[in-house]
């Protein structure tokens, strides 16, 4: 029997501004109660801001690029047989796929404590794992409310046993309903309220049965409404390249492979190797397309292009330098040319359009699976040509609307500027003290 526990609820795709609005309307009474005695803050997620990769910091305390997960899809360069691609068959986020693909660089928090993971794709080492097979059914039949109810039932069932030090549950309905309907649709707002109900039930159980507990409610990324699908694959095909992309990615041997994540970011790979000429041609073409935001590529550092602006990021051990070449694509001009550490850059960029951009751009390129070019879409746009059902909201980019996430804790703590990696430390420190 354990007397203290961490309960971590991931409210997939929940936006801080919508929570604020619903709090002001007194629509989230349970959350309101927790905030009164606890902490409510905004923290910085990681790039790409997509379900799966953006969960890694919570459970490993590391960035996805450092665990070799640059997105929910990528091209597996090392695999020389059959296809060289690796893209998500539907089970990727729902089964053990992500756990197996993550490099064993460090322990997950599950491996350190008696832990249960409910519907969460990052679950390596959990004592008890409940995979989200119902995700597929919900995707087909749009039964997200039932999916979350099932998550609540498992959570309360496990809490009553008092056997687990750490209980993690993913609630998916806010994200999924936002994609289908847009972020402010009444079904989405209802999903926030239902989530608040679930919080109330869990909170009461914790109060009744545990001597002490740390209750954490957070999100993996924001979401923005999408009015235009750019169709990155179509653009590249019109340039004369042969291109494959998910889900039609079976056969290799094309010029380019495109792998999107969250629909607002994509990796572009040259399957047969690249020439500088072709790389520059693609970058130039994309930089002139309305709705394309950042274009990132490696060349003597990491180049950042935005329209006709260009800058370069260099890394040396734990320090980074941002240098403007033309214009100031990340809006950090006054710090151009300075070598600064991770936390200093976090502080500088926290309130900018691209929170933590320097550190986040550097970390994704540390993954050998990253594309030759990475593209992000601007607010209101995404990169996909089509999707069933059609997406009316997207995430995945470095924009503040995707990078900033809310965090709510039942205890008062001095948060300062936190990233999602710091939540790992918070849970670990709490559980390590007997
Ligand atoms: Zn998500
Ligand atoms: Zn999503």
From TrEMBL:
Pfam families: Phosphodiest. GO terms for molecular function: hydrolase activity. InterPro entries: Alkaline_phosphatase_core_sf (IPR017850), Phosphodiest/P_Trfase (IPR002591). It comes from the Archaea. PANTHER family: BIS(5'-ADENOSYL)-TRIPHOSPHATASE (PTHR10151:SF120), ECTONUCLEOTIDE PYROPHOSPHATASE/PHOSPHODIESTERASE (PTHR10151). This is Putative AP superfamily protein.
């Amino acid at each position: 029997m354990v007397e203290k526990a961490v309960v971590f609820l991931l409210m997939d795709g929940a936006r801080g501004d919508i929570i604020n609005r619903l709090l002001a309307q007194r629509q989230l009474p349970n959350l309101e109660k927790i905030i009164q005695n606890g902490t409510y803050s905004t923290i910085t997620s990681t790039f790409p801001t997509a379900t799966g990769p953006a969960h890694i910091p919570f459970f490993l305390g590391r960035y996805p690029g450092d665990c070799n997960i640059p997105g929910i899809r990528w091209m597996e360069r090392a695999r020389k047989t059959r296809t060289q691609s690796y893209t998500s068959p539907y089970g990727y986020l729902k089964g053990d796929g992500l756990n197996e693909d993550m490099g064993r660089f460090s322990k997950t928090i599950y491996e350190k404590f008696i832990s249960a993971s409910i519907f969460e794709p990052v679950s390596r080492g959990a004592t008890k794992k409940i995979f989200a097979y119902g995700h597929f059914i919900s995707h087909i039949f749009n039964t997200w409310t039932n999916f979350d109810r099932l998550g609540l039932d498992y959570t309360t069932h496990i809490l009553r046993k008092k056997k687990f030090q750490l209980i993690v549950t993913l609630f998916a309905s806010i994200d999924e309903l936002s994609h289908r309907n847009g972020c402010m649709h009444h079904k989405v707002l209802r999903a926030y309220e239902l989530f608040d109900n679930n919080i109330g039930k869990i909170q009461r159980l914790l109060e009744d049965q545990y001597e002490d507990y740390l209750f954490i409610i957070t999100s993996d990324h924001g979401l923005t409404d999408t009015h235009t699908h750019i169709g990155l694959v179509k653009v590249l095909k019109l340039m004369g390249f042969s291109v494959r992309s998910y889900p039609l990615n079976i056969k290799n041997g094309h010029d380019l492979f495109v792998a999107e994540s969250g629909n607002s970011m994509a990796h572009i790979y040259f399957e047969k190797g690249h020439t500088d000429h072709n790389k520059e041609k693609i970058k130039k073409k994309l930089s002139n397309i309305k709705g394309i935001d950042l274009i990132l590529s490696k060349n003597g550092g990491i180049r950042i292009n935005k329209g006709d602006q260009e800058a370069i990021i260099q890394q040396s051990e734990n320090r980074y330098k941002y240098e403007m070449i033309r214009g100031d694509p990340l809006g950090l001009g006054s710090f151009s040319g300075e070598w600064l550490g991770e936390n200093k850059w976090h502080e500088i960029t926290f309130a900018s359009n691209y929170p933590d951009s320097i550190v986040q751009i550097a970390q994704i390129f540390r993954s050998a699976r990253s594309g030759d070019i990475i593209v992000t879409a601007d607010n209101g746009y995404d990169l996909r040509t089509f999707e069933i059902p059609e997406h009316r909201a997207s995430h995945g980019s470095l924009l503040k609307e995707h990078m900033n996430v809310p965090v709510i804790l039942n205890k008062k703590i001095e948060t300062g500027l936190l990233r999602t990696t710091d939540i790992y430390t918070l849970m670990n420190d709490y559980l390590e003290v007997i």
